[in-house]
Write a structure and sequence with these properties.
Order of helices and strands: EEEHEHEHHEHE
Oligomer: single chain
Structural class: alpha/beta
Distance between the termini: 21 Å
Length: 186
Amino acid sequence: MGQVELNLDLVALNVGETYELWNDIVVRPFRTHHVIPSQGYVIYSVRKKLKKEYIHLKGKRIEKLKKSGVEITDIILSPEVAFTGDTTSDHMLDTRNVDSLRAKTLITEATFLNEGYSIKHAQEHGHTHVFEIMEHAQWLQSKAVLLTHFSSRYNIEDIRQAISKLQARVSAKVVPLMEGFKSMYS
């Protein structure tokens, strides 16, 4: 295998902290549930919006207020992408994680796909069963849900069948991320 050098700065973040990637993009971790400590991340776009109390003012008056030190804008954070990593579906029920479910794109795991493994089995091993995503579909506000981390017990056709069942229950576009997926049967 070839060696690839990644020139990165790793930044440790705890749940509740915010990290500014750029002046218009920030990242916030959220709590997930796995057999070891884990967290997901929401990437937000940041924009400023004129406060309601100043909307009626003309440009020169707004500029004068700003120069005098008055904060004339509100900061609006819009959840763009959320990534859960390995987790049970419990993160979907945690009200502190609502932004992860309303991000435009949610990338989450679906390790188990059919009746061969129970929801209880998935939870005991710190993973999500596709049936749980169906169960909690009413909480998903994302425009796209990208599923990943499928168990190698399945093959591509198993994944496609599970996704077709899920798509009927979720209003978002559901896409399986199968690039690099290796089934133990192929």
